[in-house]
UniProtKB/TrEMBL annotation:
Gene3D superfamilies the record matches: 3.40.50.880, Carbamoyl-phosphate synthase small subunit, N-terminal domain
Top EC group: ligase
Amino-acid positions noted as binding L-glutamine in the UniProt annotation, renumbered to this chain: 62, 249, 251, 278, 281, 319, 321-322
Species classification: Bacteria, Bacillati, Actinomycetota, Actinomycetes, Micrococcales
Protein name (record): Carbamoyl phosphate synthase small chain
Catalytic activity: L-glutamine + H2O = L-glutamate + NH4(+); hydrogencarbonate + L-glutamine + 2 ATP + H2O = carbamoyl phosphate + L-glutamate + 2 ADP + phosphate + 2 H(+)
Family of this protein: Belongs to the CarA family.
Pathway: Amino-acid biosynthesis; L-arginine biosynthesis; carbamoyl phosphate from bicarbonate: step 1/1; Pyrimidine metabolism; UMP biosynthesis via de novo pathway; (S)-dihydroorotate from bicarbonate: step 1/3
Location of the active site: 277, 370, 372
Subunit note: Composed of two chains; the small (or glutamine) chain promotes the hydrolysis of glutamine to ammonia, which is used by the large (or ammonia) chain to synthesize carbamoyl phosphate. Tetramer of heterodimers (alpha,beta)4.
The keyword Electron transport appears for this protein: no
Organism: Arthrobacter echini
GN (gene name): carA
Region (CPSase): 1-198
Entry-linked NCBIfam families: CPSaseIIsmall, PRK12838.1
Amino acid sequence: MTHSRRQESPVSTVPPTVPAVLVLEDGRIFRGTSYGAEGTALGEAVFATGMTGYQETITDPSYARQLVVQTAPHIGNTGVNAADAESRRIWVAGYIVRDAARRPSNWRSEQSLDEELRDQGVVGIEGVDTRAITRHLRERGAMRAGIFSGAGALSDDARLIEQVLEQPAMTGSRLAEEVSIDQAYVVEPAEHGWTGEPVATVAALDLGIKAMTPTHFARRGVRCVVLPATATFDDITAAGPDGVFMSNGPGDPATAEPQVEVLRRVLDARIPFFGICFGNQILGRALGFGTYKLPYGHRGINQPVLDRRTGTVEITSQNHGFAVDAPLDGPVQAPAGSYGRVEVSHISLNDDVVEGLACLDLPAFSVQYHPEAAAGPHDSAYLFDRFIELMLTEKRTGTTTPGTTAQEEN
Ligand SMILES: NC(=O)CC[C@H](N)C(=O)O
């Protein structure tokens, strides 16, 4: 009886499942079901440990060409909305979750994450053991991978591994120009509730900038002129900036030669500089240090960092796979140019990786993490204040004239 009633019922709460498979370049394979768009996604498999903020994560341009594994097991439960997007689109190349929420439940939700992934053509996989994937990546390192769903998932494993190996590795990939903008734009302080006159102007290079960064400047009264990644030194000075900012961004910092050259001219001209993440790596390179690939990177919103100058510990938001190779012990002369002394100002308390650089003879500093948060804790927002203070001090003491070098001024 019960059996026949069940057969007659037209209602089914279980959606039809489409097979999907995650294939890692070392041959490890995880089978699950399709999530978001159906198709093929290739990229570097990395894991992100944030328990919240999945929308900010997937719209962070630094994740371009990466397949992101969320270690939090339940994803999508608050849906997505226009206000929380950190850029104009989703940038993760593919998305890997354990258990996708079937129904979002939040008053701010405008659409389900599944629908948003579909709308933007982002291929994902769900129902895989994300803990096993994470442990694998932690032991073997971030690596090339592919998500294949629908008909593609039925292909021969060897053929799928071949496809995964055909893509370029993250090392050597230049991606900042791909995610940047074509046209400059300005974010005015008044747009974010500032009622007085602007206190300064920052020229911000968009190497993959997140919306929250200009917002932080604007809230503090700073005009933010956002420029494409290809901006020249002359484009920067044309904005009449009191300071220059370089954002986070995807790809290998070893490929950022044009931005390193631009930054050297900024430093030569003694224009105050602040960089975050990719911007920190570019400052490191401009000063003559190398960069290297971390085994599996730092991605999450609870990464402990020590500010070595104050002894304060910050809980930070991070997303980096590369790091600066600079000596931890004491200030050193910058190996390149005549930039004077530099010190490692911040280090990771998990693994001693360089998390910040400070020039002692120039108004320039940077951090490897994300003081703009979004998502993540706000511990590091003081860095925006520190940069504004630096710009205003340089302005007051008159040592900075954009477009001229320190020698020319003397
Ligand atoms: N968020 C970032 O700016 C990342 C910088 C660089 N692409 C890295 O992976 O290290």
